Amino acid sequence: MLRTRLRLGLMCLLIILLSMGLYSINRCSELGYRIQAISRDNDRAGQNLRQIKRSGAAMTGALLSMVTEDHDGSRRDFATASKSFQEALDEENSRHSATTDEKRLIAELTDSYKSYNARAEAFLQSANQLDPAWRPTAHKLGQDTSQLLDTVEQLALAHEHALSVGNRDTAIDINDTIRSLILLMIAAVVVAIYASMRLSRGLLEPLISVTASIRQVGEGNLDQQVPVLSKDELGVLAISFNQMAAQLRQYQANTSDELMRLTLTIRATLASFPDPIFVLNSQGIVEFRNPEADQLAMKLLFSGVTRLPEKVDEKVEHVRATGQDYLPTLFKDAIKFHLDGQDRYFLPRIVLLRDDTRKVFGVAVILEEVTRMLLLDDVKSNLISTVSHELKTPLTSVRMALYLLHEKTVGGLNEKQSDLVSAAREDADRLLKTLNDLLDLAKLEQGPSQLQLTEVSPIELIENATHDTRDVAQAAEITLKMEILPNLPSVRIDRQRVAYVFANLITNAIKYSSKKSEVLVRAEMGQTRDGKPSVRFSVKDHGLGISIEYQEHIFERFYRVPDTNKSGAGLGLSIAREIVVAHQGEIGVISQPGHGSEFFFLLPSISQSSA
Questions:
Q1: Alpha-carbon span 20 to 185, nearest angstrom
Q2: Do residues 264 and 271 make contact, with C-beta atoms less than 8 angstroms apart?
Q3: Which of 87, 234, 254, 440 is the 20 to 30 Å CA partner of 550?
């Protein structure tokens, strides 16, 4: 197993390192002890020799002092020096590390000292220099002294020679130890190189092979097979890789079939679409178009293989340059083509195609034919405008007559007649307001060209809105509160239209709030759904709130939340939405039942609008 081989290789290196360490410790200890022993023996021998020399000199001096006839003092000095000489000689004789020559010389020194000591004692006992035996005794004693000192010098030389030999042997042992350690280090290096080579062949080469195969698989080449050279972990890895490659090849085969079926399904689906569809690649070249797109290309006589109609191509280039999808909702953005002797209108919808990393790899263009809807919209708008105008004039006359009757200008009315006239007047006012709202909707649907845009600050907008609705709030016992964050940019708006939005939202908040409560009108910075900075205006009340299932319909025409007993035609929020959309803004609501509602709308700031 790979684990066993790694452990054996590391174990061999560990054993060699431990052997080197233990051997080094042992040899260093031995050499240290030897050097210490040599040093102690040298110190001991040196002290003994110095003491012997001093004592010998002292004994000679004591003998010479006999000439002064101070016999008692000479005898005492000689005894003291002799005792010191004998102690140093005994100490030197007891030294076990002495060499053979040193032991021989110590024995000679001992014999010389005994002869010398005997003559000296005889010499000291003789007190008369006139004694004929005194002079020969002194002469012999001088010879013994010379022999004694000569033997001491020979012993010193022998000791120096022994010390030199000991140092030489120690140096030889040190060199032997160094050579042994070098040999062990060479052995460790050889074992390490061998283990490295074995590991390289047994571990790194299979891993390099697996890595190269994995790289090939990552590049799409699934025909990879790693050889199984062992039964260890690397062999298991190779087997697992081969199994994975086989599964990927099988998956690729299955996926290719599925992709083929999916491609055919997508093509069939797109071919069944009644609207022309073009799919462009990242270079802007048309790669696919459905039959309707083919017919459109043939009728307009343009090459749909490489390009689109000029009007559409310009919008595609703009979308690719800005990175924003083009999804118009107004009929004014429709493109007109003259086909089959008549004008036909198409609303282009251009969507960028992105992969998982959000990188653009193509563009999809759908030309939705809106000719019929555009005609119907024109008919509807003309009908609403005509009916509203035709009804508004007689309704104004009826409303004026009802006001005159209610004010009793043309004669008195009884109580029942007065009630009927009052109810008819209120219905006429409500009907006239509905007609005015319908006319406003018809004008707003014609697009922003109907707006009279001016630059206004958020502070001025909110102050005017709260001022216009303050009387209504006071009548309903509602407190209006303003909250405007500092440093807000100005907005470009149609004052009259945006004033209608504020009036509608604030009056609705007042209408659905309980008495003594508060309505907050707020301005702050915000962001649209596509991340563009805008000014966010909001009106928050503390009323009953709106359930989530009704919130998505709250801005539809003629829609009113069920179970509400408040009057209205359901056009106010729809008109507010059209006004905000005409300003390229967004409108919405945040509400929970029992926690009130917050209606908000976002308008592009001056910097964003100019951009």
A1: 8
A2: no
A3: 440
